[in-house]
Amino acid sequence: MTTVGKILVIVIMVFAVVFLGISTVVFTTATNWKTATAAQKKKVDELTTKNRDFQTAADAAKKELEKAQADHKAVLAQTESRIKSLEDEIKTLNNEATAARAKLETAQQSANTSLALAEGRRSETGQLREQKAAVEKQANEFKLRQTELNDKIRDLERQSKTLDENNKDLRDRLARVTTLLRRAGLSDDITTVKGTEAPPPVQGEVSRVDPMNQKMEITIGSDDGLAPGHELNLYRLKPRTEYLGRVRIVTVDPDQAVARVIGKTVNGKKIQEGDIVSSTIRPRS
To answer: What CATH number is given to the structural domain containing 268?
Structure first.
């Protein structure tokens, strides 16, 4: 039962109680019965009229209530429909958010992978730059070395040209000497001729000595007029001047020669780099 119906029932009960009271008063009152009855009847009519009015009002209120209930049901239905629509939208948005979150995670993983690759490539780039710098440095060194080698090659070519000219001149001189020796009935084997020709005035230094203290390389050669068999004096200037002995030329090159000690050095002294070989000094008596 609705609230309006409850109100109507209460009103009707009140009127019934009032009517019962009035009836009781009528039956209990003996004075002026007819007048009282008429008055009571009037009151009953009034009450009936009021009851009818209340009933009419109750019916109107009931209709309004039913209309309100119908409107409420319609609004409730619309609200439920809207709620369902919103729930569907929320579900769709949640699904989209989940998909977007998954895409974001994938994008983050891809970004992390890309950052890792970028870091690796940055490191690799640094290594490549270092390698490039090293290669460029090495290339510059190679260029310098190549320039030095080219200069040396040109110098060697000049020396080779000089040697060829000297060789040609020596061959011509050797041919003339051989001819003269043969005409004089002598052997043209120079190894059999010792001490037949004094060395030219020369002076050089010892550049290297063998461990046995017998052979040495000196800084003068065939360009200075030396030949195998020439004998030179060996002495030292520092810390004091001292005579060491004599050496004999074994082999010659244009700018250097190999000599061997004749016998032993004085007092068996060790030959040192920088010692002097010369044709002009004479051994001490």
So the answer is: 2.40.10.340
pLDDT in tens, 252-263: 999 999 999 999
Total domains, the chain: 2
Query: What residue type is assigned to position 208 of the chain?
Result: R
Report the half-sphere exposure of 65 (CA within 13 A, side-chain side). 13
Could you tell me the pTM of the whole model? 0.34
For residue 51, give the nearest of 25, 15, 80, 77 by alpha carbon.
15
Q: Which of 88, 105, 131 is the last residue of a domain?
A: 88
Query: Which tokens hold the place of 91?
Result: 């579900």
Q: Are strands 203-209 and 276-278 parallel, antiparallel or unpaired?
A: antiparallel
Residue 215 inside a domain? The answer is yes
What SS3 class is residue 278? strand
Cα distance between residue 19 and residue 13, in whole Å:
10
Classified as helix, coil or strand, 273 is: coil
Distance between CA atoms of residues 245 and 259, nearest Å: 12
Beta-carbon count within 10 A of 59 CB:
12
Q: Which residues does 284 contact at the CB level (< 8 Å), separation at least 6?
A: 243
Q: What is the DSSP string of 42-102?
A: HHHHHHHHHHHHHHHHHHHHHHHHHHHHHHHHHHHHHHHHHHHHHHHHHHHHHHHHHHHHH
Secondary-structure percent of the chain, ordered helix, strand, coil, rounded to 5 = 65, 15, 20
Q: What is the signed CA dihedral for 209, 210, 215, 219, rounded to 10 degrees?
A: -30
Distance CA 254, CA 199 (A): 15
281/232 Cα distance (integer angstroms): 9
- The parent domain of residue 11 ranges over 3-88
Sign of CA dihedral 227, 233, 234, 237: negative
Q: What is the DSSP letter of 269?
A: P
- On whether the CB atoms of residues 229 and 241 are closer than 8 A, the answer is no
- 6-19 pLDDT per residue, tens: 788 888 888 888 87
